Amino acid sequence: MKRILTTLAALAIAAGSAFPSFAGMIDDIRSRGTVRIGVSLGGEPIGFRDAQNNPVGYDVDVATLLSQKLGVPVEFVDVSGDARISMLVSGQIDVAVANTSATLERAKTVNFTIPYNRAGLRVIVQKDAAIKELKDLAGKKVVVGRGTTGESFLKTAVPDAQLVYVDQFAPDGVLQLQQKRVDAAIEDSSLLDYLATKNPSLVTLPGLYSNDPIGIAVAKGDPEFVRWLDMFVSDYIQSGSYAANYKKWWGPESNPPALNPLW
User: Fold this and answer.
1) Judging by DSSP bridges, how do beta strands 95-96 and 184-188 pair with one another?
2) What are 81-100's pLDDT values in tens digits?
3) Distance (Å, rounded) from C-alpha 192 to C-alpha 47?
4) Do domains 2-118+213-250 and 121-204 have the same CATH topology?
5) Distance of alpha carbon 159 from alpha carbon 36, whole angstroms
6) Which of 92, 122, 201, 224 lies most in the core, judged by the most C-beta atoms within 10 Å?
7) pLDDT digit string (tens) for 65-83?
8) pLDDT number for residue 24
């Protein structure tokens, strides 16, 4: 798989005319000399900045590996929840490795690869807030990311919840939770499970409210590039890189969600 993946990328870059539909994005990336990858740096361990202000996290590692397979340096672009899709459509980024749930609604606008991770919606609450189940969020202040699946879910499931919008869950939403300016937050389990281990005053409610495939997103119009990206994700899973990267960020005792390669 690794040999096939590398060979296809090299052929596409070296001889774009031999692969007319492949040549679009690959040629753009080659001509520019970098691949612009949108990452969401709004929450550990998916994506955040270290003490030196460098992008780090699970998605950052996936994006870095992707750029290596393409054979060009990566240019990271920090994207918020509601900007990921629009920045792809407008051509401001080439690829989004940004903790993006692959939903039917989003798939009307952009293309997705097979999942490189899975996560579900979870709720985290103040331990002393007397919130034991979802319905208890009625009348409570709940942090949500604008344009996220969590926002859509909560508007339907608990319409009386007071939504407190943030563009980035971290640091904005996390700070509001730590300062007890809000009662709860709804986000991906991958973010909230990690946050709960670092903050003893917070606890997650039991259960998940979705089981979402997290895919790499690209603009429509280049199906061969999507095919190559599917091969990249398949190689990422089968090579052991997925399990190693997951355990790097969620701990050696964590259990990576099951993913199925396509190739």
Assistant:
1) unpaired
2) 778 999 999 999 999 999 99
3) 13
4) yes
5) 38
6) 122
7) 999 999 999 999 999 877 8
8) 82
- Cα angle, residue 203 at apex, residues 197 and 207 outer, rounded to 5°: 105
Structure tokens at 239: 């090579």
Domain extents for the chain? 2-118+213-250, 121-204
- What is the phi/psi pair of residue 18, to 5°? -75, -15
No. of H helices and E strands in the chain?
A: 9, 12
Encoding tokens for residue 254?
A: 């964590």
- Paired tokens of 175: 């700070």
Topology of the domain comprising 2-118+213-250: D-Maltodextrin-Binding Protein; domain 2 (3.40.190)
pLDDT in tens, 205-253: 988 898 899 999 999 999 999 999 999 999 999 999 999 999 999 988 7
| CATH number attached to the domain at 121-204 | 3.40.190.10
DSSP state at residue 191: H
